[in-house]
Specification:
With 395 residues, this protein is mainly α. The protein has 15 helices and no strands. The N terminus is likely disordered.
Amino acid sequence: MQAISTSNVKKLWSRNFILHCLAYLLVAVAFYFLVPVLPLYVVDHLGESKDMVGYAVGLYAFSALLVRPFSGYAFDALGRRPVYLWAISLFVLLLAFYPFATSLMLLLALRVAHGLSWGFLTTGGSTIATDIVPDKRRGEGLGIFGMSITLSMALAPLLALEVLDGDHYDRLFYTAFGLALLGIVMVMLMRFPPPAKAKRKISFRTMYEKKVLPISFMMFMGAIPYSAILGFITLYAKQVGMENVGIFFLVYAAGVAIFRPTAGRIMDKKGPRLLLISSFTLTITGLILLSLSESSTPMLASGFVIGLGNGLFIPTLQTMIMNMVTVERRGMANSTFLSAIDLGIGLGAILTGYLAEEFGIPTMFMICGIMLLIPLLYFITYVYKHYKLNHISGR
């Protein structure tokens, strides 16, 4: 079988890279259309309690987690194109069913199904991005690809609330469907690298990459505060008197955008130590500031600071794992890493929902900030040494 080869890729801004980033942007916008709306939909439209918000936000992550091991194996064994097209098509189709989720149970069932497609889609997105960027500019390339998520986080909440215009939920769901459908068109215009269809039996080793587990644990811990923001920032904004929560996501995304492209270049040249210590410091500071916010101004400032931290965090970790594995195990490494995100968001949504109900949303954000001291200390004492030991020469 012909193996995937990226050693001859010289140009970062290739036709494939641009199409891939645009397609992923459109799909991510459709996904983030739901982020500021689902908490309102659950509490105001369906009449459920705050702790149910955690389940609506987090269940998709659990179902994505279930398929992550198989998604990494499928992309490595069956090829990128067929699996990716199947995943994005299912994701788009399911968006059309949200108008029919008129009860909490129907909504939760749909979130589970949507998570299955999202698990394959996101694994493929980052794996394909790694395939089509030059090896020596991997950190920079993944940082730019990650801007698809950043831009979607900035644009989608603002657009979603405008489209919603009170309670026009059906209109919002169908708009998300249309945007994601354009993403399929972009994917179909791409030329994928030739697949490496290795004949491997399904086992733990073919579904997970053991070497990246320490880094994945850091991602798991970092995803918990993120799940808190996804689930409760809309309700918290109403509590402090912010009329349009979309502005928070815009400011957050601006913070992410400042460091994300340069973080990749620094990672390629200097390594992860300074980047990750700075990331944790900024994110912890931002979450504490968020917990103390009593008006729009400090809340927006906290969103910007958290964005600065996250702009350094994910691209640095993702480049680290790609620097530790061979090309044939990229899918598995990505699925392991993204499984940690799913697990962090899923468990985090339930945990933060409980904390918000019992102690209030501000205290919940404070606890999330304090929790990040755990992965910070873990990185300093163990993970950095582990990365240097397993770094593949020349990457």
